[in-house]
Amino acid sequence: MPARQPLRIEACDPCGAQALGLLHAAAREARALYPELFPDCDAPLPGNTPTPPRGCYLLALVGGEPLGCGAFRPVDAATAELRRIYVRPEARRGGIAQALLARLEAEALRLSYRRLVLETGYKQAAAMALYLRCGFAPIATFGDYIGDPSSRCFEKHLRP
């Protein structure tokens, strides 16, 4: 990551090239980390859907280069689910993920959410440590993750 260039976090089109490039990098990393969950390494890479109403999709950029992303989608009137949180390996440990989380929380509050939930994989210790440092607490699996032994879920209650 360039040393003196500022971090910019901005809303983006999740179906655009920059967002999809980060999503594909995250998917390749997940396939390598969890080969038991992705036996077909030649399967097509995932795509994004358009941002839903009361949703948010953000890019973290340094010098115009997309280094990270994060999003949320509504679960119900008071709860949003954080999704697509990813920072390129070469840009990690520089505060980008924490900055993305802070901006996602601010956007969630602006849209009147009072709670954020998220899911991550059991092998992603650094991500889980980040969520705990940022005030998230472990919860039981929810939604599509119920019964998935590889899932670890967290929540944070937001205060204006």
TrEMBL record:
The keyword NADP does not apply. Pfam families: Acetyltransf_1 (PF00583). InterPro entries: Acyl_CoA_acyltransferase, Bact_Acetyltransf, GNAT_dom. Residues 7-160 form the N-acetyltransferase domain. PROSITE patterns: GNAT. Keywords: Acyltransferase, Transferase. This is GNAT family N-acetyltransferase. It comes from Roseateles violae.
